[in-house]
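For this section, I looked closely at a protein sequence along with its fold in token form, which I now present.
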Amino acid sequence: VSTQSHLLVPETVSRSDASVPVVILLGWAGATEKHILKCTSLYTTRGFICFWEIARLVDILIFKSNLRLLAERILDVLLDQGLSSHPIFIHAFSNGGARVYDWLSILLQHHPKYTSMRPSVKGVIFDSAPAWEAEGTAANVVFAVAKSNGWPFPRVWSMLFGLYVKVSAWIRTILGTEQPSVAFWNRMLNCALRCPELFLYGSMDVISSARKIEEVIATHRTHNIHVTAQRWEDAPHVSALRLHPAEYAARVDEFVRTCLLPVQRSSL
């Protein structure tokens, strides 16, 4: 696989071949390059082009408007590399990925520079996402990231961020402005891109509630979106690929192939 920044192009394919799928892979809060490269192998071993990004934790949790800049960068890379007309898939992990997907969706719908790319998006894959951002959710994320990265006093970091979330929500309530978490959730329910979706999630997830993910699935199906889902009873947050690699890969492969059938037929 040859690399350019975060763009991975298998040596067996040509980026000038517009039938080669491109996967935008969006990591979770606290993910590392090592984590994401394991995920990209799902696609590069199948001859797909991958572009991956991991949003900064501070942007996911606090400076969320910076995620728009990241989404613009992703789309600009696809345009600059001549990949915008390829079949495009978006694979988002947790809300770290779903938040970036949210901005990609907004830009693809409304920004004149990117609207021509919207028909190229053939499917979206959500792993442990989207998560309803209840008061304790962000604090749980901070605790998990702090613990996995060896920060001192992870519980203190979690409590401090939980306090920040409560104060911010209180200020917005006084000012009468919409809570960002509510606006984000409503956009996730709305399913603006209206393309096929695959949800991969676990019952043991304490960050992304399986019940809330199933609420999204049910709502999207009422919008006549083609939705498939796989729920693992033993999978914690973003752990399904690690615990069930063969089944996970099979579900992703089946979903992508189904989404590509109209493209393959039109090229015959």
About this structure: The chain is about 50% helix and 15% strand.
